[in-house]
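look at this stuff:

>
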Amino acid sequence: MAAITVITVFSGLSNSAQAQKSKDTITIGAALSMTGINGVNGKHTRRGYELAKSLINENGGVSVGGTKFELAIKYYDDESNPVLARKLAKRLITKDKVRLMLGPYSTSTTATVAEVTEKYKVPMVQANGASLSLFDKGYKYMFAVLSSADRYLGNALNLAAEQSKKSGVDSSTLKVAIAVEDDSFSSDLRKGVLADAKKFNMTVVIDEKLPRDFGDMTFILDKVKFEKPDILIVSGHDKGADLAIRQIKEQKVDVPMLAMTHCEGADIHGKYGLGANYTLCSTQWANTMKHKGRWFGTADNYHRQFTAEYGYEPPYQAAESSAAVLVMADAIERAASLDKQKIREALVKTDLKTFFGWVKFDETGKNIAKPMVLRQLFQGKYLTVAPSGFAQHEVVYPRPKWSDR
């Protein structure tokens, strides 16, 4: 195995204080991408974990049967390598003797770690694995606070149907175009879009895979120009979002609704300015949401605390990771025990309101209580437009034609 990077955080205690407090500390394990292709989002994830852990400790820690425990997190760098992550998860459980785990970053890495936590019956709360493939294995020890991939852009079709109804147009007349990467996340997203299209009796006129090298999607955009769909759905992570916005702008492709994932990761506004205007972007969370919970209070309070601590606004990867720590802490307290089986039983019964949204798990460990958020990029700002109960701005639909901009 490559050299292992380990970082253990004990809330800033000195070595002597650590020794004195060790019996009153609950150490949670996490194999996390601190380097490699997922290093940036791994950083956001770790900071989300740390902010929540520190806040809990600053407010007295976790109460277990009348005894207060502080939380500590032991990290290993999985180097964005799922195979290494599996080995590190086993090390955390068998050598470091952690009783609980927080998830890594990405679906593929979460999948390998889940195999280990399941084998050793160690509860894991994860925040960064969204693919449906994680939830069809019958796992009993994995719990995900985020919405699954099939729900990422469902709100887009619902929004189009709502807008069509306002205009007196039957949603069954709408045409949908889909262009997604050939990976598990985007495939699951596509399944959700197809299901929603069927629900609204919309016609799918284009269903294509993005090019593997993300170099040129002209063949798809030519079809868009010919078929004239009402909705274009794109999912290809950062590179796919960058490619789509660049070529839609270059080729002046008109489509009434453009909805995609990973807008912020691709920095579509920073790179393409007003050319990215009116794009609908899915996100797990936004600070304008009216969610409120025990530790951070409101979504906006979390936004301010994270920004003050780290000097930038929290991406949803950080927010969902903080939520994972809160869910674990809540389960420990309700279990009133450090026994991992009792904590697992408490996780099964979770019904928790947090700054991130409601968290309630189905029998697969999937969070069934939190909706996805759609924000529309307008003049450099991401404005929440769906779901309707949380909207801060009316969606601009249809998108203005290039000739009218």
